[in-house]
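Hello Y.,

Per our agreement to keep a running log of every chain we model this quarter, I'm adding this entry. I've kept the format consistent with earlier entries: sequence first, then predicted structure.
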Amino acid sequence: MSAPIVQGWCPGAHRPMMSGDGLVVRVRPRLARLTADQALGLCDLADRFGNGSIDLTNRANLQLRGVEDYDHQPLLKELAALNLLDAEPGIEVRRNILVTPLYQAGDLTARLTQELIDRLAELPALPAKFGFAIDTGPARLLNADSADIRLETGVDGLILRADGCETGRPMTEADAIDHAIALAMWFSKTYTSETRRMARVIDALPQEWQGHAPGPVGSKLQPGPCDLGALYGAAFGSLPARKLYDLIDDSGAAALRVTPWRLILLEGVAAIPATEFVTDASDPLMTTDACPGAPFCPQAQVETRDIARALAARIPGRLHVSGCAKGCARMGLADITLVGANGRFDLVKQGRAGDEPCQRGLDPETLMTMDFT
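Predicted structure for the entry above:
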């Protein structure tokens, strides 16, 4: 079996990625938010141009899958009409910004994020996956999510922290984005082809960027009611477009917010029944990761999501089912990881998809009878 191909970049709207079922077209919501009209419009586009499903990624983006080549340009026109497309492809590539989802309109998080968006053209050339996190709520929520430069709530106020450093540099709101751009400039002059993320170069980081501790980490969000509305989980990060349309329409939500945790937040509504979504925090699907698998990904060696659903309740802890050794659905450790290999599965315990398996060549029937404790 040949090694999986690591693309080294993520799809966008202007630059989609070809997969087994067609183009993957990524939409980056500004401030992690779509108005109700934008969300409903995107659901319609998923039905018209895609496979009827919307992926919610671990970078809090949304993806349409199964788009034909000849439909790409018409789709871009529709996304532009919904104000979900950057006119300049270069700005879209730079707009890798995670936003803590519980911000209030016009608060510090919203102001900093908007200023960073407005000034993206000032950034230097950066690696494709380089990104920012604006995590300035009362407690930090994005500490475990992928970002290279972090604006955070610190013990003594706002700080700017390079990912991988335990401490950061104190900021005021007035100079925070100036310093974020300056740190990106430093990184652009420091990294190499082997060190394309901030955490790989922090040994060279000047001391002036360190010294002030970040603030406390907040509680993990769960499906159910919250101060801003209602949170719903998406199994494997997959949102059925027509069911999502109905949920937004029936609930009367003002907007939809996205998170990197396979949760969506509907603003200003009470939770209503939604059988196609996860509404119970104890549902094992919320701790189960599975990529689209075969035949949707050309590198996948197995179908993934049926076996993940079947095993989810039987696995003590976190389950990751990966179609190949790349492990796109989960970069971190899982209690049990199943990796596709020539139509069967390799088993990794307490590891990642690319780690050495403890058992090889397991078929689905064998997996269904195994004791994973």
